[in-house]
Amino acid sequence: MSRRRTSLVSVQQISEINMTPLMDLTFILLITFIITFPLIEQGVAINLPKGKAADMTAQNARSISLNLDKQLYLDDVPVSREELVAAMVDVAASEPDSTIYVRADRKLDYGAVVEIMRILHDANITRMALVTAAEE
User: Fold this and answer.
1) Eight-state DSSP code of residue 39
2) Does some domain include residue 129?
3) What is the spatial distance between Cα 122 and Cα 84, in angstroms, rounded to a whole number?
């Protein structure tokens, strides 16, 4: 039996990119984003009271949040009471048709929420809404 000799020249180089691993990686990343996106809550973590209300559909809206430590946030940015007053006066002057959503922790006393509503009233903001969590 003789040994068969093969030439290395006859082996062709594969010049194509194998797309299967790239597609697998793409699908894994897509699934990861689909799963984690709903878990990322934008905004300040607040334990909202439960209640029935209509869906919020305002185009020009701002959000004021008040957490359990009575820290104020305007559109997820921490602000002092004086900064909030100034910002609301500016909003009322520049965007009179804007809606302000008030989010407050359900364990806060009633007076803290009324203070925010008074700030909005003093700034002549006429469109405001209290945000609640949906009832189950």
Assistant:
1) G
2) yes
3) 12
Global confidence as pTM: 0.58
CA distance 118 to 24: 55
Q: What type of residue is 114? A: V
Beta carbons of 78 and 44 less than 8 angstroms apart: no
Count: domains in the chain: 1
Is 10 within the bounds of a domain?
no
Q: If you average pLDDT over every residue of the chain, what do you get?
A: 80
Q: What is the domain extent for residue 114?
A: 50-134
Tens digits of residue pLDDT in 30-80: 998 888 776 665 555 666 566 665 665 657 788 898 888 889 998 888 999
CATH number for the domain spanning 122: value is 3.30.420.270
